[in-house]
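debug: dumping io for the single-chain case to check the tokenizer round-trip. Nothing else runs in this session.
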Amino acid sequence: MQPYELSLADAARAVAAGELSPVELTDSVLGRIESVEARLQAYVTVAAESARKAAVRAEHEIARGQSRGPLHGIPMGLKDLIDAAGLPTTASSRVRADHVAEGDSAVAARLSAAGAVLLGKTHTHEFAYGLTTPQTHNARDHSRVAGGSSGGSAVAVAAGEATFALGTDTGGSIRVPAALNGVVGLKPTYGLISRQGVTSLSWSLDHVGPLTRTVRDAALVLAALDGRDRRDRREPGGASAAPESGDLTGLRVGVPRNYYFERVNPEVEASARRAIEQLQELGAELIEVEIPMARYIQAVQWGLMVPEATAYHEGTLRSTPDLYAADVRILLEAGELVSAGDYLRAQRARTLMRDAWAQMLGRVDVIAAPSVPMTAVKSGQDSVRWADGTVEAVSDSYVRLSAPANITGVPALTLPVGRDHEGMPIGMQLMGRPMDEATVLRVGHAYEVAVAYEVAAARSEAGAGELAPVAS
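debug: decoded output
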């Protein structure tokens, strides 16, 4: 195994044991970028020189016994909405082509303090306003969409171009590309992670979170990012510890009887249900739940996001409209047609939905469901036809199962649970109570450990190492 293939936890252990240096790890990842980036286009900017300097600095600090923790010397990418001092923050848009960040965002500063090595900025769907990231190609099949809007971050992690990365999630923009590329993505509780220095799409729906190779890795990154933010409306506290392995006896898993399994590809449903059965085998109790106010979810999501995005872009939309891509410009112009009354009704509906979800999550510890209704579609495909004859836009399909966690602000984790007949990854989503990332991560990690054990046992019985892991 090459260093660029290591999980964050494995790389951190190797660095701490002196078996791998931050310079060796960073050089391996930069070499991987050089070999695959032309095909994948995950990065807007690669800062190789500064990354190597940071790796050397980390190596010297660790050698002097000044370790800053598990992220010290680990190479990572930042979605190009997130400011890092001295680097462009373009939002993958011509509108911001000449913008260079004067200072670090709060999350970039936290990762720098933890000793992480910044490789560069990853592509987003323009201003995060889309679910495909059209300039970036899926890590598993280059003819398919990467998912969005954090497509560059997901592809970089999946392809070995970063050991971990940060993305943003407004309607699924961490979880969708993570699921489509076969990696882990965590959208934390709303307000838990600072958004200071992060370009906004919709300020009441935006979240920042990690994309990683394993659930344990996501917990390690979250621990470095977690903390109070006085600039946010909410001021939560409490660090999120890395999940412990073990059984799930006594834990209650909610299985939706509506919404999350409607208009879902049969292979996606089968993989998600098998994963849920695995949670039951680990000791969890499965409880059917009714998703409240399901008929209003998409209307509330768009009713909040569209006018807030338009308000943010009001000045540049009027001064330089031609610099926006056509799909984004149309959405921004549509936002001008949303009345104040409609926006306030969406906010009121969100409050009712939050209350209803709180009641539902009082009965269970997590909700388990598919992350997205279908695997990655071919680039350029605009719509999907479901078995009932319904035709749905690809973007509407991908946002449909992710939006509730953004509206309600609950933590949501996606992790790989299988592949379809063409080998494309399938993800399962775990959603929990606000500020209870620990339980969500515990459940995801328990599944991850169980599957890894089954794969290892199967390989041992077969006497060969060529069996593909179910959740790889």
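debug: round-trip ok. Residues 3-241+253-462 form a domain with the Amidase signature (AS) enzymes fold (CATH 3.90.1300.10).
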